[in-house]
């Protein structure tokens, strides 16, 4: 019985960690494919200190309506690998970088699907492993282990970013994720860096954490409910089987 309790706890812990990984990847995909992220003139204005709309238009190279249309084009192409980024005002270097970004986002989308599917399988396995016993306590204990491990990892990453600073961490992340230096853009020649200053990425990181936390809580609740319902079905089936066996013996 104790070994079964530990097994259910381990499965629940793994499901929790995979759910969080899937939630983070899924949140990144949602943000990257949201046109709003490419149309934050307010953040550009705060970053540059420009006071008028005309000055902002001169700096970016697009007025508000043009940037809104540009943002829609970027967002629509981020989720469709059949489309390129030609013809929307990006130079060749920017186009290639956006292709690299989209490839990364599509990999994250696949990773999110894989992690969440694996978490669902583990939740079912935990319910099955519990057998006739109740899954609640063991699963809760495992989920707490998983959350504790995630808290340590997130705290360590936050501390590392705090020590290094967001800018250095941002550069390190790009060096880790990309095999080229096309992400090193020049505000004199590249519109992407003009519409997406560092402050935008700082706010996007906060939004990523919030979205990931919401997805994590939602999916974890769904997995817990599924495991609980399945556990009840297994117990009822086991009880019915025992009743049938006893009835057969009486006869």
UniProtKB/TrEMBL annotation:
Listed A to Z, the keywords are:
Membrane, Signal, Transmembrane, Transmembrane helix
Superkingdom assignment: Bacteria
The membrane spanning regions, by residue number, are: 111-131, 143-166, 204-234
Cross-referenced InterPro entries: Lit
Leader sequence residues: 1-21
Q: What name does UniProt use for this protein?
A: DUF1461 domain-containing protein
